[in-house]
C-alpha cells in the first residue's frame, strides 16, 4: 500500500531521464536486424555441428528479440509512469495548498489534522464556521484518497511491466521465424505491453470534491486522452475544471449528433416508431441550438463560452453554457431559468441575457475602480415543467422535478468551487420555477454560494405550507434578495398558496430589491420591468432596467449599489 509520506517524495524526473537512455539502446539494437537474418544456417554446412551452431544462433536471436521487447516496454512504461507521476505531484500540491490555506495539515499516514481557525470566531458564527471546517476536512480526505488511489494504480501497473522484464517474459520470442527476424517487430510487441492504464473515475454519484481530486491527480496527457477518447466520463462530472468539461462536451456533442443522425435515418427507412422519431429530432434540434450558441456568426468557436454540461438523457435535453471563464473569474453567477424553458427553444435568449448581466457587472466594477472578471452560467440541468407537456405539470404540482433539479444544482455549484484553488464570489440566480430549484439547492451545505437573487418567484421551498425564512438558506446572513415586478402574477399570486413555502416578497431575512423605475445615487436613470419576463431587460437605448442593475450589483459583489424596493 502506497502511503501519503511516500507519494510526497515522488518525482517524475529520474524516470523521464531514463527514457532517453533506453531509447538510444533500443535504436542501436534494432539496427542489427539485417545482420541477424540468415545466420541461423550457413550454405552447404550440415551435420551435428551445423545443427548446434544453428541452435546457438537461434538462441542469440531469441534473446535479442526478448531484449528488444524489454527495452521497448521499459521505455514506454518509464515514460508513461513519469508522466503519470506529474499528476500525483499536482494532486499532492493542491491538497497541501488547500490544507495550508485553511490551517489544516496532512499527516504522514494521510490523516487530516484540523489546527483550528486562525482568527477568533464570534459566538454567533461558531456553528457555521465549524460546519465549513467539516466540509473542508471532508474535501481534504477526498483529495488524499484520490492521490493515493492514483499512486497505487501507477505502482501496480509499473510493477507489472517491471516483473515481466525482470523475469525475461515480456514476449515469447521462441515462436518467431528467425529466418525473417525483425527486432523492431519484437519491440512493437513489447511496446504494446508497456503501457499504463488511466485511473478510472470515481462513481457517478461521487461528491464534486472527489471528482476534483481525481482530475487533479491525473497528468495533463491523461486528461487530454480522456477528453478525446471518453468525453462522456468528463463533460458532466461536477468538480472538473470548466474548460476541460467544455472540451469534452464539444467532442461528445459531435458523437451524439452522429449517433442520433444514424438512428434517425434508420428509423425513417424502416418506418419506425413516430414517438421515438420525435424524441431523436428534439435532440438533434437541441444539439444544433447548442452548436449555434457555442459558435460565432462566422462559424468559429466562441472561446469566451464554455459548455459545462450536455445531457441528452431523460425526457428532454439539458445543458449549461457559461459566458466567460468559470475557472478564473473572481465573480461567478449561476442562473437557473424556469417553466417552459428548453435547450432548443429559449436557452439562447437566456445565455444572451446573462451576457448582458455579466457586462453590466463588469462595467459596475470598472466604474468603481475595482475591475474584476465576471462569468455567468445559464444552467438548464433539470427539466422544467411546461404547458406543452401536460405530464410535466405533475412535477410542478408535486415539486418532484424541482427537488431533483435542486439536488443537481447544489452539486453543480459545489463543483465550481471544488475545481478551483480559491473560491470565487458566487451568486445563485433563480427565475420563476428556477427560483424554487435554486432555493432547494441552497438547503444543501457547502454549495459555496455567497449571494442569492430570486426573481419572479412562486416560492423557494419544496415543503407545502412551511413558514420558512431566508435564514433557512445555507448562505451568509442577509445575502438573500428578491425582486417582484409590477404585473408579475406568478410572483404575486402563486406564493399565496404557500405551496412552495412562504411568499419571498414577505419572507423574514429576505432583502427586497426594486424592479420599478428608479434613480441611483450617481444620478443614473433605470426603467421599470413589467410582468414575469422582463427582469434582465435592457432598454432600447442600451441602459439597464432597475431589476437588471440590481441583479448585476449583487453578481459584482457590490450590494451597496443595489436599489431597495419601495
Automatic annotation (TrEMBL):
Keywords: Hydrolase. Residues 318-493 form the DUF1023 domain. Residues 511-530 have a biased composition (Polar residues). GO terms for molecular function: hydrolase activity. InterPro entries: AB_hydrolase_fold, DUF1023, ESAT-6-like_sf. Signal peptide: none annotated. Residues 511-547 are annotated as: Disordered. This is Alpha/beta hydrolase family protein.
Amino acid at each position: 500500500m502506497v502511503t501519503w509520506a511516500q507519494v510526497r517524495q515522488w518525482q517524475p524526473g529520474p524516470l523521464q531521464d531514463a527514457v532517453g537512455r533506453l531509447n538510444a539502446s533500443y535504436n542501436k539494437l534494432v539496427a542489427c536486424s539485417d545482420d541477424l537474418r540468415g545466420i541461423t544456417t550457413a550454405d552447404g554446412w550440415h551435420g551435428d555441428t551445423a545443427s548446434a551452431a544453428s541452435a546457438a544462433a537461434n538462441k542469440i536471436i531469441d534473446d535479442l528479440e526478448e531484449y528488444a521487447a524489454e527495452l521497448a516496454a521499459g521505455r514506454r512504461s518509464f515514460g508513461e509512469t513519469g508522466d503519470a507521476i506529474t499528476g500525483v505531484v499536482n494532486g499532492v500540491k493542491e491538497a497541501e495548498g488547500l490544507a495550508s490555506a485553511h490551517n489544516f495539515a496532512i499527516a504522514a499516514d494521510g490523516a487530516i489534522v484540523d489546527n483550528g481557525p486562525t482568527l477568533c470566531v464570534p459566538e454567533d458564527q461558531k456553528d457555521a464556521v465549524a460546519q465549513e471546517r467539516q466540509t473542508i476536512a471532508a474535501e481534504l480526505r477526498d483529495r488524499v484518497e484520490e492521490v493515493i488511489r492514483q499512486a497505487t494504480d501507477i505502482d501496480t501497473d509499473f510493477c507489472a511491466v517491471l516483473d515481466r522484464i525482470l523475469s525475461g517474459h515480456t514476449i515469447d520470442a521462441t515462436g518467431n521465424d528467425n529466418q525473417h527476424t525483425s527486432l523492431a517487430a519484437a519491440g512493437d510487441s513489447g511496446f504494446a505491453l508497456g503501457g499504463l492504464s488511466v485511473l478510472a473515475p470515481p462513481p457517478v454519484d461521487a461528491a464534486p470534491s472527489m471528482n476534483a481530486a481525481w482530475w487533479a491527480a491525473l497528468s495533463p496527457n491523461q486528461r487530454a486522452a480522456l477528453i478525446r477518447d471518453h468525453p462522456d466520463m468528463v463533460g458532466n462530472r461536477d468538480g472538473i475544471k470548466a474548460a476541460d468539461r467544455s472540451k469534452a462536451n464539444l467532442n461528445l456533442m459531435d458523437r451524439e449528433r452522429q449517433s442520433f443522425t444514424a438512428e434517425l435515418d434508420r428509423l425513417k427507412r424502416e418506418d419506425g416508431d413516430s414517438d421515438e422519431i420525435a424524441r431523436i429530432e428534439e435532440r438533434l434540434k437541441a444539439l444544433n441550438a447548442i452548436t449555434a450558441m457555442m459558435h460565432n456568426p462566422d462559424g468559429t468557436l466562441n472561446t469566451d463560452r464554455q459548455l459545462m454540461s450536455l445531457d441528452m438523457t431523460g425526457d428532454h435535453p439539458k445543458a449549461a453554457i457559461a459566458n466567460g471563464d468559470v475557472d478564473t473569474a473572481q465573480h461567478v453567477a449561476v442562473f437557473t431559468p424556469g417553466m417552459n424553458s428548453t435547450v432548443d427553444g429559449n436557452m439562447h435568449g437566456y445565455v444572451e441575457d446573462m451576457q448582458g448581466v455579466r457586462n453590466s457587472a463588469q462595467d459596475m466594477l470598472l466604474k468603481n475602480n475595482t475591475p474584476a472578471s465576471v462569468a455567468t452560467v445559464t444552467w438548464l440541468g433539470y427539466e422544467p415543467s411546461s404547458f406543452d407537456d401536460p405530464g410535466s405539470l405533475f412535477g410542478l404540482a408535486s415539486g418532484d422535478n424541482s427537488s431533483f433539479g435542486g439536488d443537481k444544482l447544489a452539486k453543480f455549484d459545489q463543483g465550481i468551487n471544488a475545481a478551483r484553488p480559491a473560491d470565487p464570489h458566487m451568486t445563485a440566480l433563480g427565475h420563476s420555477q428556477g427560483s424554487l430549484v435554486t432555493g432547494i439547492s441552497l438547503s444543501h451545505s457547502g454549495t459555496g454560494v455567497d449571494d442569492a437573487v430570486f426573481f419572479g418567484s412562486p416560492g423557494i421551498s419544496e415543503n407545502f405550507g412551511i413558514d420558512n425564512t431566508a435564514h433557512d438558506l445555507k448562505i451568509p446572513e442577509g445575502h438573500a434578495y428578491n425582486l417582484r415586478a409590477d404585473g408579475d402574477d406568478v410572483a404575486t399570486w402563486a406564493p399565496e398558496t404557500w405551496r412552495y413555502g412562504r411568499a419571498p416578497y414577505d419572507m423574514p431575512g429576505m432583502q427586497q430589491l426594486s424592479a420599478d423605475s428608479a434613480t441611483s445615487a450617481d444620478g443614473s436613470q433605470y426603467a421599470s420591468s413589467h410582468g414575469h419576463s422582463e427582469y434582465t431587460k435592457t432598454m432600447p437605448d442600451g441602459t439597464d432596467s432597475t431589476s437588471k442593475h440590481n441583479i448585476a450589483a449583487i453578481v459584482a459583489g457590490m450590494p451597496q449599489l443595489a436599489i431597495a424596493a419601495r
